[in-house]
Design a protein that fits this description.
Blueprint (H helix, E strand, L loop, with lengths): L1 H9 L4 H12 L4 H18 L2 H12 L25
Length: 87
């Protein structure tokens, strides 16, 4: 569970607010560097949260994939697998 938390915090966009907080700490010692890093983190977070950017990135990933083929026959039944759950 701890490993999953670290992986989540290190991948964008979850890492950008974390970087912005770290940049505010860095700002105490090197003001310009901290301000630039905070600004870049906030701008990247805003850009990555916009649907047009996400859609563009998704289209870039999906290029070159084979088209989705529909099955020749329709499903004849719906099977629901379940088990007895005692609560």
């Amino acid at each position: 569970m701890l490993k999953e938390l670290f992986v989540t915090l290190l991948l964008p966009p979850a890492n950008l607010p974390l970087f912005a907080m770290i940049d505010l700490i860095i700002r105490r010692w090197c003001r310009r560097l901290g301000e630039w890093m905070t600004a870049i983190s906030v701008v990247l977070l805003l850009l990555l949260s916009m649907p047009i950017i996400g859609g563009t990135m998704l289209v870039a990933l999906e290029q070159g994939l084979p088209p989705h083929k529909r099955p020749a026959t329709r499903p004849a039944a719906i099977v629901i697998l379940s088990a007895d759950i005692t609560r």
